[in-house]
Amino acid sequence: MRIREPRAVVNVRELPDVCFGPRDIMWWGTLGFVVIEGWTLTLCMVAWVYLQQNVAEWPPEGTKLPSLLLPSIELALMLASLPAVAWCRRVVRQYDLAKARIGFTFMGLLGLVLTGLQIAAMLVSLNVKWDSSAYGSAQWLVLTYHGSLVLVEGCEVLGLALAYWFAPVEDKHFPDGADAMFYWVFMVASFAVVYVLCFLVPRWI
């Protein structure tokens, strides 16, 4: 009769049921979105630079430079939101549902305001139509793609706020809020680059 070899047994009862950051599988999913969408945005900006290097004037003669007011307001609001992002991340790590409701409602509404500002910036501040020239197409390409990120993030955060208000909330739902704030930081950082490329670089060339 063959005797089975002893197997190591690990007691996992002490492991936490809810994790934040890299210990949470959803955090890796959010990181995957950041990588994919960041890479796509990078390709859009590379196309912008490539087109700029293949024309004599950028923007073309007779095309007004982009206005700075609306995009500057948007960038200022994004940067000003970062302390609120840190606060929301701290709140969900404390499983504080009452504060999470307030914080994510505010951030969701702010996301929709930022979406409106980005649309207004494209319609009013670019001073060029998307089909008028390669310059116009490149400007609209970069800003439209980034605008889609802002819209999706605003809807996601507002959806979390609605869930925190009206759905049965368990501890496992709080890491979702932390992941959404992680993505928010990516949205702000990427817009800072877009702002420089689309609104400042045409002034410097």
> Helices and strands, in N-to-C order?
HHHHHH
How far is the N terminus from the C terminus? 84 Å
Radius of gyration from the CA trace? 22 Å
Q: Mean pLDDT, rounded to whole units?
A: 91
Here the CATH topology of one domain equals: Four Helix Bundle (Hemerythrin (Met), subunit A)
How many beta-strand segments? 0
Architecture overview:
This protein has about 200 residues and is mostly helical. The protein has a domain of about 130 residues: Four Helix Bundle (Hemerythrin (Met), subunit A). Helices cover about 70% and strands about 0% of the residues. The chain is built from six helices and no strands. Helix 3 runs antiparallel to helix 4 and helix 5 runs antiparallel to helix 6. The chain is elongated.
Short characterization:
By secondary structure, this protein is mainly alpha-helical. It is built from six helices and no strands.
